[in-house]
């Protein structure tokens, strides 16, 4: 049995942020995550570090939080934030009244804005719809959610925090009605770890209610699915928003070599069963195409969706539900933290840990806003000369990942899941979506005795199914052509079947 | 702009186009073949898949749905086309083993067995069951071949690794064309004192000389030796392409390499010419008839838009299997995706349905209702329809 002070359930931005905050305040802790870090809504969003502009009209409190956190993250997280700046573009027919309210809202909150003529906006982002009326500059940024989680966890690791990914919480251990620990199963071996602590924090996002029920509590949530598409080109160097009340497909965010566009907003029941519909993909492309016409002709490499866990509300359009967050004290040694946004994850963690410190009757101020994220010095970006030095051993041609990179991640993490390698190296993130390199990565994992031969083949099969779920709704043009080639390789040349 | 006239222009350099072209040229016609680049045949295993159903693929064909284009050809003609192919290849130093009325298995690079019919002689000894004792020899750093996958199924298999000095499929294959390299490799193999009944290699045993290299290895090691086809780039696919290309040229055919078709000229019910362009240079080729063998999506003959599918050379009517929602099933492994039926529907003479011109004939993967993956119709289908389209074209021209 493992003993610690605080158990964190969930390895999204909130959970990882709490781990970092606890580490900096000297509180022993253990984080449990059923998948990999950033596997839920954290990894399935735009990767937009909001300036707050998006909420300036509808929710000034959330907008203020966003703007404050935006400034903090730009300062402490240089290596996972790209200071792209953002534009709110007004197209012909978009309300001028909304523009006035938007500018006034930003002004009241203190979000700096600059109004650009259409000519000036087109100089900054040449791919914009030339018919635009005007654009307003805000300090939106692009953020890498996965790297953000890893950097937060780095601080936890340096300071002795524990974490178990690919472990599912099976049971909340209770004694005299109080939560005293959890039993978590290793998803590969089924082996159960029992971990005891003084407090449990349930930061499991869309799964919060399920985890709470293990402790006999309830956290009523509204689950809102948002779908996004990824293009294989970086069509803009700035974040592009539509200057109108929040609606489908009104945000485009550049990230590394690609762009993400979304989202939609549909209420769902089960966070484990969310699909995408062709109509959603068409809507996003259509709307994004109004702002950047190239969206209609560019290659879409994948569509995906995430679930926003929002506080329960009677409102029908989930966009009107507050994006604020809430800490729920279940009065039995467990807290749930729900709502919020990626942009405000640090603030959420701070408030959560403040609550924990009070419960422990300890005094130590939060330092997460002042200290730069640990581990950034190791991230040198992607210097091409370094990657090309080992050209002979490139495993993923799209993202220039070498066999050495794959072996290093396996050595460091001991992972048996090829997705963990992708998250940490970008293997398989390019146009072929892992069609070639995953076969190689799994072959290497077998070479290294991480997987048995049978497990390699089974993982390959599961990967292909997972991959297909992501690209199925973006299959036309070149992406369909590439998909037919990949299908020909695996089902034709390699004669791989569901059971054979 | 230069204008040149032929009897027939074949568009597409895959198995179907080269087969049709060679047949027409062998009948004394002036034939030119135009291609935008290397065909997908180069990505293939080089095996001639006819129809995966049944022990006898010709029986399997009989059971295919009525809409399948195989039914437009008499069974005897399919058989003759395949036998003819075998004769050609034997004469060009790449014999194919097998018979048109007998399916056989080929061990894949993941340890599964793929059903094929005629196989390159280098795969002649591929095991027919999981029990065989084989020894796999792979090459250090070769990134597209992992013996571990095969060991997951063939319990009696073992492997060794040879350092060939290079690590790419093409690089190792080039080394094998060098006698000194081959001799050093054989000496290394002999020292292994292998006890298994058969020796397997990823398909990198040379390019032109593969059949001879396998012969030499068998004699020196005194046991059967075979190649396991790899994912692209695939040497057996390239060897097949080279043999078909040689045969076409020997019949007098001309190839316009890297000359994509950019337009067509028509008059009444005739296509009169195709306009080509290479590096900004235009050219026009006149002909009395045209063979469309541009392949499916991968080959580039078809292109999917969000709501429809187009044929890229003549903009012919395409059979589109329902709406985009119907193109793919949820289950990746179903082999039953609607998209497999997309293509050009054709009549008994391989003339496209609804085609406004009388002198176009279509063959190979661009045809509708093939369902190549589901039915296991690969190069065998291309050879049979290539011959059949050529015959119809001949009749039309006479």
Tag the structure with descriptive keywords:
heterodimer; A: 500 residues; alpha+beta; FAD/NAD(P)-binding domain; D-Amino Acid Oxidase, Chain A, domain 2; 3 domains; 9-stranded mixed sheet; 6-stranded mixed sheet; 14 helices; B: 398 residues; alpha/beta; Rossmann fold; 5-stranded parallel sheet; 4-stranded mixed sheet; 19 strands; 21% strand
Helical percentage of chain B: 25-40%
Uncertain runs of chain A: none
Name the shape of chain A in a single word: globular
First CA to last CA of chain B: what distance? 30 Å
Spell out the helices and strands of chain B N to C.
Answer: EEHEHHEEEEEHEHHEHEHEEEEEEEHEHH
CATH class of the largest domain in chain A: Alpha Beta
Main beta sheet of chain B, described? Answer: 5 strands, parallel
Write up what this structure looks like:
The complex is a heterodimer of chains A (500) and B (398). By secondary structure, chain A is α+β, with helices and mostly antiparallel strands. Chain A has three domains: 154 residues, 3-Layer(bba) Sandwich (FAD/NAD(P)-binding domain); 163 residues, D-Amino Acid Oxidase, Chain A, domain 2, CATH 3.30.9; 112 residues, no CATH class. Chain A has 14 helices and 24 strands. In chain A, the strands form five sheets. In chain A, strands 6, 7, 8, 15, 16, 17, 18, 19 and 20 form a nine-stranded mixed beta sheet that branches. Chain A has a six-stranded mixed beta sheet with strand order 10-3-2-14-22-21, sandwiched between helices. Chain A is globular and about 65 Å long. Chain A starts with a strand and ends in a 7-residue tail after the last helix. The mean pLDDT of chain A is 92. Chain B is of the alpha/beta class. Chain B folds into two domains: 253 residues, 3-Layer(bba) Sandwich (FAD/NAD(P)-binding domain), CATH 3.50.50.60; 99 residues, Rossmann fold. Chain B contains eleven helices and 19 strands. Chain B has a five-stranded parallel beta sheet with strand order 12-3-2-16-19, covered by helices on one side. A four-stranded mixed beta sheet of chain B has the order 1-15-14-13, with no helix packed on it. In chain B, a hairpin with a 2-residue loop joins strand 14 and strand 15. In chain B, helix 1 runs parallel beside helix 8, helix 1 runs parallel beside helix 11 and helix 3 crosses helix 11. Chain B starts with a strand and ends with a helix. Classes of the chains: A alpha+beta (500), B alpha/beta (398). Chains A and B meet through helix 12, helix 13 and helix 14 of A and strand 6, helix 4 and helix 9 of B.
């Amino acid at each position: 049995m493992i003993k610690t002070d605080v158990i964190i359930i969930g390895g999204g931005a909130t959970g990882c942020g709490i781990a970092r905050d606890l580490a900096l305040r000297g509180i022993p802790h253990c984080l449990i995550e059923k998948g990999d870090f950033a596997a839920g809504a954290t990894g399935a969003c735009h990767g937009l570090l909001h300036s707050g502009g998006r909420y300036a009209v509808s929710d000034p409190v959330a907008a203020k939080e966003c703007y404050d956190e935006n400034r903090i993250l730009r300062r402490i997280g240089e290596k996972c934030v790209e200071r792209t700046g953002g534009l709110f573009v007004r197209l012909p027919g978009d309300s001028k009244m909304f523009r006035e309210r938007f500018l006034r809202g930003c002004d009241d909150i203190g979000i700096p804005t600059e109004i650009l003529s259409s000519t000036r906006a087109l100089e900054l982002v040449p791919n914009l719809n030339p018919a635009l009326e005007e654009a307003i500059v805000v300090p939106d940024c692009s953020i890498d959610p996965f790297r953000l989680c890893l950097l937060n966890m780095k601080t936890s690791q340096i300071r002795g925090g524990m974490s178990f990914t690919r472990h599912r919480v099976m049971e909340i251990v209770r004694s005299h009605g109080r939560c005293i620990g959890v039993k978590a199963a290793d998803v590969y071996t089924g082996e159960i770890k029992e971990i005891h602590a003084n407090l449990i924090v349930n930061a499991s996002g869309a799964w919060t209610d399920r985890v709470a029920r293990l402790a006999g509590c309830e956290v009523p949530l509204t689950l809102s699915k948002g779908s996004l598409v990824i293009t294989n080109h970086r069509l803009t160097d700035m974040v592009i928003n539509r200057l109108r009340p929040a609606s489908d497909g009104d945000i485009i965010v550049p990230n590394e070599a690609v762009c993400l566009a979304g989202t939609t907003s549909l209420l769902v029941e089960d966070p484990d069963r969310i699909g995408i519909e062709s109509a959603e993909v068409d809507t996003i492309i259509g709307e994004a195409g109004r702002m950047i016409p190239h969206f209609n002709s560019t290659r879409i490499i994948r569509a995906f969706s995430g679930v926003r866990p929002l506080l329960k509300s009677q409102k029908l359009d989930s966009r009107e539900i507050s994006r604020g967050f809430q800490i729920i004290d279940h009065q039995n040694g467990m807290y749930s933290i729900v709502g919020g946004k990626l942009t405000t994850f640090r603030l959420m963690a701070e408030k959560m840990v403040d609550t924990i410190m009070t419960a422990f009757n300890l005094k130590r101020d939060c330092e997460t806003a002042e200290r730069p994220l640990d581990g950034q010095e190791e991230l040198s970006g992607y210097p091409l000369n370094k990657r090309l030095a080992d050209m002979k051993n490139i495993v993923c041609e799209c993202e220039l990942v070498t066999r050495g990179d794959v072996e290093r991640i396996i050595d460091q993490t001991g992972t048996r899941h090829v997705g963990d390698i992708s998250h940490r190296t970008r293997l398989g993130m390019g146009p072929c979506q892992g069609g070639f390199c995953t076969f190689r990565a799994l072959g290497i994992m077998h070479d290294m005795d991480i997987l048995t031969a049978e497990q390699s083949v089974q993982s390959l099969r599961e990967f292909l199914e997972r991959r297909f779920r992501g690209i199925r709704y973006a299959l036309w043009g070149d992406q369909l052509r590439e998909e037919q080639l990949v299908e020909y390789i695996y089902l034709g040349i390699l004669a791989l079947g569901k059971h054979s | 702009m230069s204008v040149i006239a032929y009897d027939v222009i074949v568009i597409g350099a895959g198995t179907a186009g080269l087969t049709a072209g060679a047949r027409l040229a062998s009948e004394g016609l002036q034939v030119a073949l135009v291609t935008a680049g290397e065909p997908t045949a180069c990505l293939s295993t080089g095996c001639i898949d006819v129809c995966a159903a049944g022990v006898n693929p010709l029986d399997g064909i009989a059971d295919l749905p009525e809409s399948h284009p195989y039914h437009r050809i008499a069974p005897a003609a399919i058989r003759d086309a395949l036998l003819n192919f075998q004769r050609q290849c034997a004469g060009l130093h790449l014999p194919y083993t097998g018979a048109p009325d007998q399916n056989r298995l080929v061990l894949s690079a993941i340890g599964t067995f793929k059903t094929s019919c005629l196989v390159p002689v280098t795969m002649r000894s591929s095991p027919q069951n999981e029990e065989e004792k084989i020894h796999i020899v792979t090459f250090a750093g070769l990134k597209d071949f992992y013996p571990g996958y095969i060991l997951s199924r063939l319990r009696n298999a073992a492997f060794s690794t040879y350092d060939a000095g290079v690590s790419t499929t093409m690089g190792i294959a080039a080394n094998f064309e060098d006698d000194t390299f081959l001799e050093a490799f054989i000496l290394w193999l002999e020292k292994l004192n292998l006890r298994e009944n058969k020796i397997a290699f990823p398909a990198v045993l040379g390019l032109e000389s593969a059949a001879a290299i396998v012969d030499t290895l068998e004699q020196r090691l005194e046991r059967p030796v075979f190649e396991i086809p790899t994912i692209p780039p695939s040497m057996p696919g390239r060897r097949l392409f080279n043999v078909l290309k040689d045969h076409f040229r020997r019949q007098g055919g001309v190839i316009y390499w890297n000359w994509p078709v950019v337009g067509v000229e028509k008059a009444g019910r005739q296509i009169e010419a195709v306009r080509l362009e290479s590096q900004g240079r235009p050219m026009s080729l006149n002909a009395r008839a045209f063979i469309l063998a541009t392949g499916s999506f991968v080959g580039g003959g078809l292109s999917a838009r969000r709501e429809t599918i187009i044929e890229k050379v003549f903009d012919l009517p395409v059979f589109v299997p329902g709406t985009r929602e119907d193109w793919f099933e949820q289950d990746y492994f179903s082999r039953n995706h609607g998209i497999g039926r997309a293509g050009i529907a054709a009549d008994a003479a391989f003339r496209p349905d609804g085609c406004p011109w009388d002198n176009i004939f279509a063959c190979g993967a661009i045809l509708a209702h093939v369902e190549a993956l589901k039915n296991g119709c690969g190069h065998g289908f291309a050879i049979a329809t290539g011959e059949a389209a050529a015959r119809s074209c001949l009749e039309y021209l006479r």
